[in-house]
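We read letters as residues; the fold follows as tokens. A sample entry reads:
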Amino acid sequence: MLNTRTAVILRELMGVEASVTSEEIGAVIGVTSRTVRNDIKELNILLSDYGAEIKSVRGAGFRLMVHDQTKFLKFLQLNFQKDGFNEGEIPTTPEDRVQYLVKRLLLAENYLKMEDAAEELFVSKSTIQYDFRHVRNIFKKYGIFLESRPNYGMKLKGPEFKLRFCMSEFIFNQYSGNHPDIANLDSSILSREDMLIIRDIIVKQINEHHITLSDIGLTNLVIHIAIACKRIQNNNFVYWVPEELKEVEKQKEYEVAGKIIQLLEKELEVSFPAGEIAYVAVHLMGTKLVTYMDAKGSDYQSVIDNKTHQLTARIIETVDKELRLGIRTDKELNMSLYLHLKPAINRFKYGMNIRNPMLNEIKLNYPVAFEAGIIAGRVIEKETGVEMNEHEAGYLALHIGAAIERRKITNRPKRCLVVCATGIGSSRLLSYKLQEKFGDKIEVAGTTEYYKLKEQPLKDIDFIISTIPISEPFPVPIIEVNTFLGNNDFEKIQHVFSGPENIDIEYTRKELVFLQQKLDSKKEVLHFICNRLQEIGLVGDQFLNSVLEREALSPTSFGNMTAIPHPVDPQTDSTFWAICTLQKPIKWGEQFVQFVCLLSVKKSSKEDLQKMYRLLGKIIDDSAKVQKLIKCKTYEEFVHVFVRF
């Protein structure tokens, strides 16, 4: 069976099409390249019976080769059926040790000595002291700190609300996806049988009271009630300011929470104080879905309040202004965002942040939409004074991402003018052939002879299709084709819709590309790039601070070894990229990064940036090509690889 480290190595090799060096893998998991090579020998022994092997490619590194997909799939099922540690397994990587210690402290009823933790993990005291630095930083993000007491050890201290949220994050964080299975949740808090009892009681009560929860919302509520049971059993309770408690008691959800608690007390033999009923109520208030499925829209109209409506409009206006997405008039976005904000405001109000299990996938697959979610969070903070985390930004990104996709679908067809020298018959044949091939993507605005072309109004024309060569300049692209559309004619026209496969490197230039840099941290990288940009006069002295401010909201690492840092607000007089590749990967938030593309958009820009965003998405999405870019040593080599995107 795989251990934690060999499992990570196999995942890394499965995640790329190209070869990966032992140094690159070692940087990801925090061990030497020699250790990686020894682990790969062990992996090959395990894989030999399952139709796969890891081959060493001279000068390139290691590559996973699968000879029998059926056998290899069986191997994956045996080893990756469940994330997290197997029972009794000792964490070996620094990241796994930190996760172990966080969970250990969250579940501890008494103090934990550093010496005992070192013994449990079979590491030295100096190693465990280093691990605890990271542990403290994690808890600090949640407003929790480690209280040290001589001869006793360490214990967590902090507001009960925040302790419980942290428990949900780190004890149940193996749950992900849109179809959670309650029975597979971590049973460190309550048994799976008890959690199924909680789920069944919730479902029955919300159905009776016509409250709708998403699958994720239901699972979050089960988790938080399970945590509440555990904490109450250990005499840890949520306390409320009397005015806040009275306000919650007025809500419909308080009545439903009371009935849920009444049934739980009977089934689980746990006594819930009044404050705990309010705790369940605010979770219901923060996770319920407001629906608008009525055909006449009356349900939507009935829940509108002016304050949330104005906040929604402000978010859409700001996002559209900063990112030029063309979504300002999207009515469905306005409605869905408004209905999302209704319960979200309750979450903000009570500090009841919920985990977004899709966060990493949203960042990786929809980076522009996620950036829009971050901008939306800044608007919410400015308007309400409540700080929103990246999990909530991810949920907002889903609504904005849907609007971006809708805009692609609803874009007007491309209008073209056909120039044909052989008469009306052939020009009409050409027109019908275009309509047959491209359907409603294309609109033939008309046909003309070459000598009349200069007389034609081209204001609303996107391009010209001509069966004869045209050397004179025109304000729109000209595509030369055969009368009967053969060979690669269709591919030429297709480029109008999707953009050419080989595009020029228009957003950067030689002095903005820094290859194979020896930099050891995110801070070093950002200082290096920003200083270079300031030296050549592209940015001012506040540019770096603005970039660091954006990073503080949420790290701009998006997976596949890439990061796209940028200022929190537009700072420059032009739109450009500065690219920096690193000799070795560095930790950037929760991801490892070796390819950095610092993006700066022009102040008050009115240009269409969709092409740029699409290219950024392609870079992030293709790990094999990112690896090729990382290995480039000259600007000419880099450009050759880059333009192939």
About this structure: Residues 390-410 form the longest helix (21 residues).
